[in-house]
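Q: What does the assembly look like in three dimensions?
Context provided by user:
Components: two
Sequences:
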Amino acid sequence: MNKFFPSKIITKKEVLESNLNYALIILNRPIQIKRELIETLWNNSLINITVDGGTNRWLNFLKNNNLENKLKHPTLITGDLDSCHAESLKFFTQTKVIQTVDQDETDFTKCLRVLEPFINELKLDHTVVICENSGRLDHIIANINTLYKNQLKSNEISRPVFMLSSTSISFLLPEGKSEIHIPECAKKLWCALMPIAGPTTVSTEGLKWNMKNFEMKFGGLVSTSNKYDGISDFVKVECNLPILWSMGICDEI
Amino acid sequence: MYKFFPKNILNIKEIKKSQIKYGVIILNNLIKLDPLHMETLWKNSMVNITVDGGTNGWLNFLKKNNLEEKLQDPNLITGDLDSCHAETLTYFKDVKIIQSNDQNENDFSKSLRALEPLCKEFNLNQVVVVTDNSGRLDQIMSNINTLYKNHLKLKEHIRPAYMLTSTELSWLLPKGKSEIHIPECAKKQKCALMPVGRPTVVSTEGLKWNLKKDEMKFGGLVSTSNKIDKQTDVVKIESDFPILWSMGIRDD
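A: Here is the predicted structure of the complete assembly.
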């Protein structure tokens, strides 16, 4: 049984209270998450990584919020660095740079590889990735593929990866049974189950439109714009292939 | 073998002179296309549909570009209309509305359904969908699912729905062999082949990183951030299942 608690990531209060060990990764999309939340996530993570152009985004965020000299520098900058401005590299003097040039994998995939040795060393519970779901379709799809690749890794070196945007949190549910705790303020928002990798037989509880041993697939049923049943604190999902879950999150910090 | 000529959608001169009949569907509420390109697509289409919040988007586009009196009204407004402003509906008061509250289909699917009889009436060969990658992952995936459902429904008759954003053009390639004739604006641009929905065996020619009967799948090979080889006029693709193709149309 896999249990997921997105609430421990999406509000400042819960991030502080839950005291979990996590890594934070910034990808190359505009940073639109509320300042207080992202500041809290940054300050409390055990390792902060900006990936290629994400380094520029992070520097812009600091400048726009007068935080240049207030937050610690990233632990690492990774990626092939073809989008990372010289100015950004120059600014983050305390940051180790690990250039990953391999063109067979995306910068995000390579970043999770760089993170592998830290998983046991820092006893990481999960990874939070800051990334808006906008821009190039192939980048959005590539990020999802990175989640699937991560899922295939052994228990030793794999941990849940949460994709956090200003309006949603998305993550892969592994094959088998999962429970997702639904934060109070998210209960009136949308959620979705998307069988990206292939036809997947799914059963759910706690949703407005539940499924019972139903084969979900592209060209058929893909459960988007679903909602919650209004009673449950947990959504339960059982699936025979890893499936992508996404849910709306609210504004409160 | 199916041949695609995206220049008939992307190039203003080609849109005007092309004999290919198409419909336009406006999905998103912020139109980021080059205004002249958008105007040309609208004027030369046989049928224009605005979908729910896309109707607001269309009105804003008209106002922003001083086109209110100059372009024809949409032929149809569709969707559940929960995002359509009252002001917008007032402005387009003479436009036929097909409102559908069916929660089993997304607005894009409903608009294709509404377009169906018009496709026959006007002999439409393709649909251009003006959209954006909006931030909601489920809506992006839902639209991709609509492409698959639309494709499967039409079976042998290929009537592609092209998803057009300000930076890229995406559509579903049918199973079997396809040729994509690359317009000038797309040469050397990025491209991608994405086996959304199931593993697919693919071969290609004309890309920077070609595939040769490679199985593409999530958790494995998904060809993103590929490029159209600079020598290439025609990209050739063969796949054992419909596959999602995307190509850049200008620099990001």
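Follow-up: Chain A has a mean pLDDT of 95.
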